[in-house]
Amino acid sequence: MRKEKPSVLVVGTFHFGNSPDMNQVDAGNMLGENRQKEVLEVVKRLENYKPSKVAVEVEKEKEVALNQKYEEYINNKFELTTNEVHQLGFRICEARNHQKIYAIDWMGDIGSRSINEVLGWAEINQTELYDLITKVYIPKIIPDIKGLTILEYLKSLNNKERIQVEHEMYLNLAQIGEGTDYVGIDWVRWWYQRNLIIYNNIIKLIENKDERVILFIGSAHVHLVSQFLAESGVRSQFN
Q: How many C-beta neighbours within 10 Å does residue 173 have?
């Protein structure tokens, strides 16, 4: 008989509001009536997963402050912002009567160059690779949201082929550099460390074989986090 395993539903999202990320999505007024109906439809669908815990892309050290906001929300003392952590995470926690929401992200500094520094170096020194990343890969990995509901857009973000293409882009970033000056790897190693820490924080949420964790995280993380989970023996599912 097959032994049941804990499950993590990895839901790749876009940032509903402004963010410093390299790729931006303009979904219009996320607090408008139509978009709010679409968000509630997503919440309803994902609630069917019956998560035992909800994890979100917030730095671990900010978990106490995150839960203070969540407590204010369930006590009608906090109005949700456009942030997907609030729109999706808080709402599903409330629907499932959860007392806590979990922060799993890490944004520590290990002395690496930023993504903008890496691309800036490539623009001057490796123009072909720079053009491949900015003119070929980036347009491929950002689906056009025009005419799509939030549910439809999230499904397109979690398409396995799109996720694989996005990971290929990061491997191309790793090729930026010259000689022993590993410019791209200087950032990519930080990216891998961040995703390993996210994986580690998720694993620590699993307390028994019946655990069902739902993770809301930027779609760029889906490939690595899902890979780490699957290879550790956890059932990792795409949305």
A: 22
Mention every residue, 6+ apart, whose C-beta is less than 8 A from residue 140: 162, 165
Q: How far apart are CA 132 and CA 187, in angstroms?
A: 18
Instruction: Tell me the C-alpha to C-alpha distance, in Å, between residue 40 and each of 20, 86, 144, 214.
Output: 26, 12, 21, 16
Q: What is the pTM of this model?
A: 0.92
**Domain residue extents for the chain:** 1-239
Which residue type, as a one-letter code, is found at position 186? D
Tell me, what DSSP letter sits at residue 43?
Answer: H
Tens of pLDDT along the chain (239 residues) come to 345 789 999 999 998 865 555 556 666 788 899 999 999 999 999 999 999 999 999 999 999 999 999 999 999 999 999 999 999 999 999 999 999 999 999 999 866 799 999 999 999 999 999 999 999 999 999 877 888 999 999 999 999 999 999 999 999 999 999 999 999 999 999 999 999 999 999 999 999 999 999 999 999 999 999 999 999 988 766 54
E-strand spans in the chain?
7-13, 53-59, 102-105, 212-218, 235-238
Cβ count within 10 A of residue 99: 9
**Is the distance from CB of 207 to CB of 228 less than 8 angstroms?**
no
Nearest to 84 by CA among 172, 174, 138, 14: 14
Which of 218, 195, 213 lies closest to 54 in space, CA to CA?
213
